[in-house]
Amino acid sequence: MVCMGTTNTNRIRALILMIVIGASARTTHADSVSLGLIGITSHGASSASSGAYRWMPRKISSIMQTVWNPELNFTYERGNWLFNATYVSDCMNKDAYYLGIGKRWNITDSFYASVLAGAYFVKDPIFMNDFKRLEGFKNKVIFAPWISLEKDFKISGGVHAFINMSSNIALTHAVTGIKYKY
Question: What are phi and psi of 110, to 5 degrees?
Answer without folding.
Answer: -135, 15
